[in-house]
Specification:
The chain is an alpha/beta fold and 166 residues long. It folds into 2 domains: 1-51, no CATH class; 52-166, no CATH class. It is built from 3 helices and 5 strands. It has a 3-stranded parallel beta sheet, with no helix packed on it. The longest helix is centred in the middle third of the chain and has 30 residues, at 84-113. The two termini are 26 Å apart.
Amino acid sequence: PEHLRKAGYYCTNNSKEDYNLEKPADLWDDSSRKAHWKNRGEDQPFFAIFNHTISHESQLRKRPHTAVQDPAGVRVPAYHPDTPEVRQDWAQYYDKLTEMDQLVGQNIEELEKAGLLDETIIFYYGDHGSGMPRHKRWPYNSGLHVPLIVVIPEKFQHLAPPEYKV
């Protein structure tokens, strides 16, 4: 965000900052739970990060939990024991992903309502695998494979790599 700020962008982070490094004092215009691109100056370009932590490790085993996914129907990876407890954890993880999908949908809806959806490049990504055992903090594919979705509006298609597919 440092270079974007120098270029006049309003840069916000809502609000995860565990960089494991020293944070420069002027990195963000706002880095808090209230940080939002809506707080920028009129017609000011923006770079905004929204950290949805609903599927993080700390959220996966909170009980009681009203399951949406049926634990009996979830796929348990071969490296986990197939027990009712593990099935419950995986079902709850998938429920949390569904909730997170709704939160991301709200972010997109806000852009659309503001007339900015066709003006905004959206990056959706994860910083590690799920919060399940053998995922986060482990150098296995289950911890290293992360989601990355990039949505490039028509007006910016010329900036996309040739292999980009809409």
